Amino acid sequence: MTLPSWRATVPGDLDAIARQILTSCAISRKFALYGTLGAGKTALVRAFCRQLGLAEAEIGSPSFALANEYGPDPLVFHLDLYRIKQPQELFDLGLERYLDGPEYCFLEWPELAEPWLDGDTVRLKLTVLAQGERLIERLIPDSSPSVSSSTKDSNG
């Protein structure tokens, strides 16, 4: 089965891509974003939020807070799990609360969270190509990058 992929040649392309993904995955509200540092995961989350009608000014990176909430209409959770090292930390963060509700939830660095992600979670892999172009590929759940093949750099 061939799943869709998209190419972003300039940052402005992300809005149209986010709109297409949200439209094609209308019943899904959970999104797992895989990719190396600088691949554009946070930029894509910002594009998703703009397409959901949220103001750009309220959308930030949750790198240090681990989780940001935007909204309230719609309520959106944005989690950056880069600094999470052990599954227990996900439990302490309250990951199940973010995943179990009807709200939108965007997870960056979701490798350790895979056991909590269901088959309805939209999994997207971002890859940096030549000239700064980005390839965004939809993954099937069984092909999601595993914890052992994490895309974090050796310093992470």
Task: Describe it.
- The protein has a seven-stranded mixed β-sheet, covered by helices on one side.
- It has a single domain (5-138), classed as P-loop containing nucleotide triphosphate hydrolases (Rossmann fold, 3-Layer(aba) Sandwich).
- Helix content is 23%, strand content 24%.
- The termini are far apart.
- The chain is globular and about 40 Å long.
- Helix 1 (13-24) packs across helix 2 (41-51).
- By secondary structure, the chain is α/β, with parallel strands linked by helices.
- It contains four helices and seven strands, in the order βαβαββααβββ.
- The chain has helices spanning 13-24, 41-51, 87-93, 95-100; strands at 5-8, 30-35, 67-70, 76-80, 104-108, 122-128, 134-139.
Write the layout of secondary structure elements.
Blueprint: E1 5-8, H1 13-24, E2 30-35, H2 41-51, E3 67-70, E4 76-80, H3 87-93, H4 95-100, E5 104-108, E6 122-128, E7 134-139
Parallel strand pairs: 2-5, 2-6, 4-5
Antiparallel strand pairs: 1-7, 3-4, 6-7
Helix pairs in contact: 1-2
